[in-house]
Amino acid sequence: QMADPFLYNTGERSHYGCLGHEVQIDYLKAYVCRPSFSTDKAVIVVHDVFGWQFPDIRYIVDLIAGHGYITVCPDFFKGTKPWTSTDHWADFPDWLKNHDPMKVDKEADVVLKYLKEQCGAKKIGIVGFSWGGMAVHHLMLKNPQLAAGVSLYGIVRDSEERYSLLNPTFFIFGEKDHTISLDQIFLLEDKLKQYCKVPYKIKVYPGQVHGFAQLKPEDMKPDDKPYIEEARRDMIDWIKMFV
Questions:
Q1: Tell me, what's the pLDDT at 16?
Q2: How far is 228 from 224, CA to CA, in rounded Å?
Q3: How far is residue 49's CA from residue 99's CA, in Å, rounded to a whole number?
């Protein structure tokens, strides 16, 4: 039984009344939330294995929009079934073959085009969680249109072409993440020092497990709350600095 790489205990989640609305972008469905004033700045949110309709992700979209960004979470699974907490872990490798976080380039381009042409966005950042964190790491190596990225607990894959980031990228990890060892984080830091030519930051939050940063306020444990809030502030500050 290998350690389960993405799934964290989703537990009972409280209901969330969303502030945004769903739209069709080319062949993708997406959830969009706009700030109360007009802006030419936007952020793409990449969901985790639980997909674009997961309440925690919609909460994050609304949160980022509240800071003044047109925020969009497209369905990177293109209408296929997201992973659910009742699925069998033995089936996860097969599911993942058809949901590869490195194969998101086409969807990213479709959404970038929409943000520029339909929403008037001039600067666009990207934020992703877990599966989405891996997608962000990939896109920040490939897509120069993304002005800045935040990868939250995306598993670190080591290969020589993983470190030449095109634009400023911030990596957020939990200290107690059973899927990402501190060794992997030190390796990332080491390699970025060698190869990375743009600003980057790595931060590890004490005592936090995989998936910690996307909890809604009523689902947070009191001990974790300060770290969750700090991670979210740090995420927004990074976006504000570069987008």
A1: 66
A2: 6
A3: 9
Does residue 2 lie in a domain region? no
Alpha carbon distance 232, 165 (integer Å): 22
CA distance 89 to 93: 8
CA distance 63 to 236: 9
Cα→Cα distances 209→32, 46, 159, 219, Å: 28, 19, 25, 14
* Tens of pLDDT, residues 187-236: 999 999 999 999 999 999 999 999 999 988 888 899 999 999 999 999 99
Please tell me the distance from the alpha carbon of residue 133 to that of residue 150, in angstroms, as a whole number. Answer: 7
Q: What is the pTM of this model?
A: 0.93
Please report whether residue 163 resides in a domain.
yes
Domain that holds residue 157: 21-242
Give the CATH number, domain containing residue 118.
Answer: 3.40.50.1820
Number of domains in the chain: 1
User: Following DSSP, what letter does each residue of 37-58 receive, concatenated?
Assistant: S--SEEEEEE--TT-TT-HHHH
Angle formed by the axes of helices 105-117 and 131-142, to 10°? 70
Of 95, 90, 35, residue with least CA distance to 63? 35
Given the structure tokens 């120069």, which residue do they identify? Answer: 144
Backbone angles phi, psi at 204, to 5 degrees: -115, 125
